Amino acid sequence: QQSQTKTHSTTANKTYYSSFKMYSNMNMIPTCASVEDVISSVEAMRRQEQETYHCEDYLYTSSRGAPSRGPLAADVECRTKMAEWCYQVVDFCRFNRETVGIAMDMLDRYLMASPAAIEDRKIFQLAAMTCLYTAVKVHEPEAMEPKTISGLSRGAYTVEQVEEMERQILVAIKWRVNPPTALSFVHHFLALTQVDASELMDMAKFQTELAVSEYALAGIPKSTIALCALANAGLPNTDLQRISQVAQIAIDANVIRTQETLYNAMNSNATVVQAQPATTEIVGEHKTTQAHSSGRTKGSPRCAADY
Question: Cyclin-like domain location, by residue (predicted)?
Fold first, then answer.
């Protein structure tokens, strides 16, 4: 199906769009790294996402056997709102936006291991806020105090509750707080090509951030999201084929749905500005004359209680 790829012009002007200049140090590939080293890293990251950081549909959105839940149970909308809130916080604090992806990965795995937390939206909200607190502590040069999280909740949660929730989360996810992210795969995949990364990185990174808020993509391997983001961004088909072979990603219906989901997410959050260069596509042809631009959310983050 990759041999039948087409091109389209695509868009991306998003409220929660990230600045291209803000990169994660842990995901940058050293210029001196050999192709063999990059391939070895990709293989290790693939094993991690398959064996250690796997996530499933814990909200049962695609299952007819979903358990009955009470009126206060968290749902997809709750998760989306908390992801947006996390982006507001990291933008205000000038943290790396990829930290939100790590926080939501931790949250998804915690809820998969502790389904009782889904039954109460207050517990769900506390868990989401605490996951961000922990992700910042581990991956940012500066940590947030538990009282900061309590303050952002307007006192809905005490410092003690935040600390206890962190303990529960870490135990549930077995202290695994370094998941391979979609953006880390993007960096590694581009290192396997000869293309100018600056031409593709901003749009690919934008899509990886959109994917964090999409519950439908929570169970999709981050390597697949990265591959689809690069396809939407216009990576040549020959490079896509090589990457899929190195990462052992089969181009199946699941990959096609993922690319479509990312593409639709871009367009649903875009503003018409100008036509973009044609971009490579795994799935069928799309048409648009919208464009992307960078920008970060402005102003202080809203209180979590407002969500």
Answer: 84-171
In a domain, 198, yes or no: yes
For 5, phi then psi, to 5°, come to -65, 150
What is the SS3 assignment for 66? coil
pLDDT tens digits, 2-28: 333 333 333 333 333 333 233 344 455
CB 22 within 8 A of CB 161: no
CATH of the domain at 100: 1.10.472.10
* Residue 280, helix vs strand vs coil: strand
Taking CA atoms, 29 is separated from 23, 26, 195, 303, in Å, by 11, 8, 15, 37
Give the integer Cα–Cα distance in Å for 178 and 170.
Answer: 12
Which positions ≥6 away from 14 have C-beta within 8 Å?
206, 209, 210, 266, 269, 270, 292, 295
- Of 5, 108, 6, 50, the C-alpha closest to 247 is 50
Q: Is residue 38 part of a domain?
A: yes
Give per-residue pLDDT as tens, 62-72.
655 666 677 77
CB 118 within 8 A of CB 69: yes
